[in-house]
Here is the input.
Amino acid sequence: MKLKHFKVEKFDKDKIDHYVLVKKIERGSKVDYISPHLMNYLEKAQTKNYVLKDKEGNSLGLFGEKEDKRDNTLELWCILGEENRGKGLGSRFLGEITSYLITEKDISDLKLVIQKENKASRKIAFENGYTVCRPIDETKDEFRYFGKKGKGK
Here is the structure.
């Protein structure tokens, strides 16, 4: 994956820096919406998981993608380490990955599942052209991408 401001490295639980990143995120974040144990989720989920890094190689967080055959979409998720939040990195990354998937991979049916209480992630989704499509349950909404190029392009 070639992105302008980020590196994306396939997640490998046996790489010490990947393992440490997951444990750090588990301790410093409320990740129950993914799984009470993030490492178990990463190992068992039907997702392709990656470590998100800056251009200098510093780990910023985790990113994943999963094909949803029920509606032929690609579901994306991202969680940044606590120290990397509030700096615009999430919005920049979503913009870049959205643009990359559309222009380089010809994938335009993208979706995000976001907790209703997660105001920061909802704002990032709106900033990058995603729209609330439907509620999934009382705690989560599905956001879909409907054609505006992401900020990262």
